[in-house]
Write a structure and sequence with these properties.
alpha/beta; Rossmann fold; single chain; 8 strands; 8-stranded mixed beta sheet
Length: about 230
Amino acid sequence: MVELPISITVDGATVSGIIDRPENCRPGVTPGLVLGHGANNDLTHPLLAIVAEHLADTGVANVLRFNFPYMQRGASSPDRLTVLEETLRRAHDVLFDDPDCAPGPLFLGGKSLGARVAASLVSRHHEAEGLLASGLIFLGYPLHAPGGRDNLKLEPLRRIDVPSLFVVGTRDPFCDIELLKPIVAGLDMPGTLHLVPEGGHSFEMPKSSGRTDEESFHDVAAVVAGFIEAHTA
């Protein structure tokens, strides 16, 4: 695996990114994955790092993870959705045009906030401002605020018509699994739901589980790898 720090320009600002590339990356053949981070973390979050490194180590995908501008400048509140979308779009373009290993099939996704931004863009892929992807990977989709099950954030999901993977912890306060199940099944192209037993919003494990967070993250990485392989065969 080769790890490449990069910079991405978004509306005159610069954000950091990392490309984790398989040593045997085949231009135009090896899949790509662009991953956005969650609201309160950045591209170095252990979950994203382990997923990216696993996919690159196993030769499954060429992965780009990146910072949103607010996190790059040290702000506590996320940027407007239009800014978040433009950042993901620019990250997509950087990986798509990678001169050393442009991807074959290209997937989009992220953790929580990053997942919602990816869903928003791909749900509008028939429109000029949308993005087409071979699939979507949601690591802890924020379906509602904690305790806010009567106010579901459904709009980004309503028009998804590409393969999608929803990885959700069974203790995630941002996603009631029983509410998510019919949504995933009812998509234009029904999605795949994978549950992480006892996992929280970031798939962190309680001490009572007898498992470490790192073990959980590696399991999630294997699930993501299997999804990409199943949809690029």
